[in-house]
Amino acid sequence: MVITPTQEEMPVVMPFTSARRKAWLRIIILAVLLSAMAGCGNSTIVGKWRMSGGSNATVWEFLQNGSLLIGNVRGRYRFGDQDRIKIETPFATTVYQIEISGDRMVLREPGGSKLEFTRLKETQR
Q1: 59-62, long-range: CB < 8 A, 24+ apart
Q2: CA distances from 50 to 1, 7, 40, 45 (A)
Q3: Which residues partner with 85 through β-bridges?
């Protein structure tokens, strides 16, 4: 024997189903937005940074799309959790602890050594 809902029960079931779908849709939209925001990373890094060591020191350029140029070497960067950044080049992949304060940036390696940078202004090369 098959039980079918009566006409009186349908309005009660339909709003519940519609509300459930709306809730799932909101969760999916929120998850997509959070993923997109996480993928953007820290936009304060975008630009050119000169390593400490004088005006002839290597310049690192971080682009908005996750690309990186270290001198003439191309690479990629991606932010992780707990203020970490992963930098991949054809020669090595390294994860650093990153600190940015104004125009200063420090990348610390797991072993404790650090790389210090100063942001270049648009007119500096």
Answers
A1: 59/120, 60/117
A2: 78, 73, 23, 12
A3: 79, 96
Digit-coded pLDDT (tens) for 78-111? 999 999 999 999 999 999 999 999 999 999 998 8
CB-CB neighbours of 18 under 10 Å = 10
CATH for the 42-119 domain, from 3.40.50.1470, 2.40.128.10, 3.90.1150.10, 2.40.10.340: 2.40.128.10
Rounded-to-integer distance, Cα 88 and Cα 80, Å: 13
Model pTM score: 0.63
